[in-house]
Design goal:
The complex is a heterodimer of chains A (about 230) and B (about 260). With about 230 residues, chain A is mostly helical. Chain A is built from 10 helices and no strands. Chain A has one domain: MetI-like fold (Orthogonal Bundle). In chain A, α1 runs antiparallel to α7 and α9 runs antiparallel to α10. Chain B folds into 2 domains: about 120 residues, D-Maltodextrin-Binding Protein, domain 2 (3-Layer(aba) Sandwich), CATH 3.40.190; about 100 residues, D-Maltodextrin-Binding Protein, domain 2, CATH 3.40.190. Chain B has 10 helices and 10 strands. In chain B, strands 2-1-3-10-4 form a 5-stranded mixed β-sheet. A 5-stranded mixed β-sheet of chain B has the order 7-6-8-5-9, with helices on both faces. The termini of chain B are far apart. Classes of the chains: A mainly alpha (about 230), B alpha/beta (about 260). At the A-B interface, α9 of A face α3 and β7 of B.
Amino acid sequence: MIVAVDLSPLWISLQTAAVTIVIVFFLGVLSAWRVERLRSENVKIFIDGLFTLPMVLPPTVAGFFLLVFFGNNRLIGKFFLEYFGIQIAFSWIATVLAAAVIAFPLMYRSARGALAQVDKGILEAARSLGMTEWRVFWRIHLPNALPGIIAGGLLAFARGLGEFGATAMLAGNIAGKTRTLPLAVYSAVAAGDWDSAAVYVLVITAICFTVVIGLNVYQYRVKKQQES
Amino acid sequence: MRKFLCLVISLMALVMLGCGGKQEHADKTVTVHAAAAASLEKVFEQQLIPMFNKKHPEIKIQGVYDASGKLQSQIENGLNVDIFISAANKQMQALDKKGYMDSESIKPLLQNKLVLIVPAKNDGSIKNFADLAKAKHPAVGDPASVPAGQYAKEALTSLGIWEQVQAKASLGTNVTQVLNWVGEGSADAGLVYATDAALIKDKVKIIAEAPAGSLKKPVIYPIGILKQATQAVAAKELANFLQTNEAMQIFENYGFARVK
């Protein structure tokens, strides 16, 4: 099967997922750290729920909320347009925004679990030696939780790569600009162009499968290392 | 825990009982499954189906609304419908050629118009179809699957600006998506049907109709009954009703025109 297929959706998707994962990684880990240190259990439960919502809600609902905030006539969208001349809707930034919102919960929850599993004793020990909270986090807490955090990052990357619903609503479907792989699959199928759709499907399946296999290999190695 | 289980089981029992009740009713009524272009959803659900139900309480209509190209592909892949109303002849002819349609039953039902719309709040720089070449973020239906997109392509090609517009256009996978993009101001101009624009009059402004001669053929919505129809008689009843004078007046209220 040889078909001339426009590969721009692949590059757009990879760029989007790459930038998304950098943003989501820092946001996810830092918010997990912050929430972990909250004193009130009730506030913790509430914020945990709020940060997990995009993962369980349909992406179209996330897309709706994004439109309500970032649309050209809406609060944040209007601000960016009038003060910086940047239109968020229909731009590549919008694909990142949509992917970030959808991928964030995976990163956040993984980081939250990984940070909570670190032995509190060593953190106390570090504090008693006079380390600041930030240094305890950076030098002791984060390195010890890293395997779980990296695993979460890989999943978040794959999820960001696959984002479709919110992207279509905020970023549109502009070939060569905002048409990501999932949108390309949708458009090709709608047009009855099964050959192109198949190529896109193969590509995205291969990437996601590689990520998941990589995740398993990584976790297996970490486990072996810990055992020895 | 046990209380919870009891609750779940009794709820399930209730649901099953409910289903059983429906089954008995189903003997008397028949359900016609209709696949219709997305632009028909409002007029069908708000007016025509309730009207039809008053006349024929024994016939229930179950509608599926989407881009005509997608409906065509779904029908080819086993979507079980009795009647198909497409927003262009292309999909109807394709299905007919592949033997899905009862050829005798295919008739032109309605006519629509392609219009240029801009957000209600606009800077006035877009005044006619040719100005689409200047638009920053134009939106049209995907010509590969959306009839409104095919007409848009045809009209813009005849004006010699299709290539320019295509390069920066966001391609909607159905015409409602194009409408919402313009309504929300994401796109600064778009091409949709007059009937779509009529749905959100407060958010979009109609600037112009497709220039005379830019479309070779008028925008026709054909209706047809499928060979696989399990409720062919009831479907025929619906098709006849949609072509009555009474139904046409409703269609006109929603921006459609009669076939000349």
